[in-house]
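Hi F.,

I've been meaning to write this up properly since the lab meeting, where we talked about keeping a consistent format for the predictions we share between groups. The idea is simple: the sequence comes first, exactly as it goes in, then the structure tokens exactly as they come out, then a line or two of notes. No screenshots and no reformatting. I'm using this chain as the first example so we have something concrete to point to.
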Amino acid sequence: MNFGNRLFGGRSAAELKALIILSAPLIAAHFSQCAMGFVDTVMAGRVSSVDLAAVAMGSSIWFSVFLFMLGILMAVTPSVAQLHGAGKGKEIGHHVRQALLLALALSVALIAILRNAAPLLSFMEVDAAAAPLTVAYLKALSWGVPAIAVFFVLRHFSEALSCTKPSMIVAFVGLAFNIAANYILIYGKLGFPAMGGVGCGWASALTMWVMCLGMIVIVLRGKIFAPARLTKGGFRPDVNELGRILRLGLPIGCALFVEASIFGVIALLIGSLGADVVAAHQIALNFASLVFMVPLSVSTAISVRVGHAIGRQSPRDARRSSAVGIVLTAFLALFSAAFTLLFPGVIASIYTDNADVAAAAAALLVLAALFQVSDAVQVSTAGALRGYKDTRVPMYLLIFAYWAVGLPLGYTLGLTSLWGEPMGAAGFWIGLIAGLTAAAVLLSWRLRVLTRRFDTKKGAAPKTAAALGTKSVERLGA
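Output, unedited:
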């Protein structure tokens, strides 16, 4: 940590070390989970560009609605972190049980959406060859939704206690299982029929159940989880607690949905340009998502560290955790952007042996490199704000950045003559750069305002944030 001491010094260097220790297993876990998408993309791409396009469009729809549910359930992390920091271990179990009930209820709604996606594909005029495969892919994947919902509640519970290794272990197991299941179901091995891209959906659903069961075993057997007495209380719905989770989690879910829906809408709009264009877009997006796992992991660690600091009524430590974490993610993003700019052709060739698709993907990867720093700053800043339980105002800022800046610019550049000759997929990626940059600037401003007002109310602000949650934070920062 000599580098950290020189760059930050004193307590900031110690905070940097704590963030790295907390983030490292999360990075491994997120990479493993994102690698599942990489495996799906590569294996489906080896069948045909139509199968790859079907998986791409199906994944876009799935992740858009899934991230809305995940965002709601992410309320578990700051809530448990603040309770843990305040030494209120007995209240954690009740909170997690209510979150599990909410997760199962939300999964029912998601299953209904996934199994009725055909009208959306028809409305968006998706390539006729890929649309039926996309519908079948989503129906297969829907069987795993309850499992992944329960898994993420338990994962957020574990991470909020600064216990991040279980996420890594389960993700590794899930990746290994997903590779084997994909191989068997996509290509038709061990007596199973060759399902192509649809096999990715079935493999993903099975993998979700494997990961859920693995996380349940770890939580029930781990000593660190025992004080929460997770299995000792009843699972009767508590309207007040469910309301608190929804008030905190709904803005997170909406923010994630807004961001993911931009990518989903872009994929569907590009779908009218043909399977090869969609395939190139999916390759660039998949690699960008893989790289994004690093700042996303640090973002989760920042939320935990800030939540612990607020729970123990230490706004200065919360501010330090935010600042160190954001700087760390920006540095890491600079390295990943440089790598992407240097080797776009090599990266594209890993995904496909189709020369036209690889060339188009390489051009998009250059654009993907340009938004990595902005993307890292916005996600790490959002993580810090979640640690403060500040979620509603950031949601509004993200809606503006993505839907008022990013998508309109991308659409007019990509599919209209407003700025000159339509640019196709590249125009949408330029819009993404603008939207993510706007998000980074706006969220950074929000965090600056919020931390300053916490510092000027040192006696009241930490107590208010821990005890009363989002509404009080908004009164301080709005």
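Notes:
The first helix runs from residue 2 to 7.
The CA atoms of residues 45 and 352 lie 6 Å apart.

If this format works for you, I'll send the rest the same way.

G.
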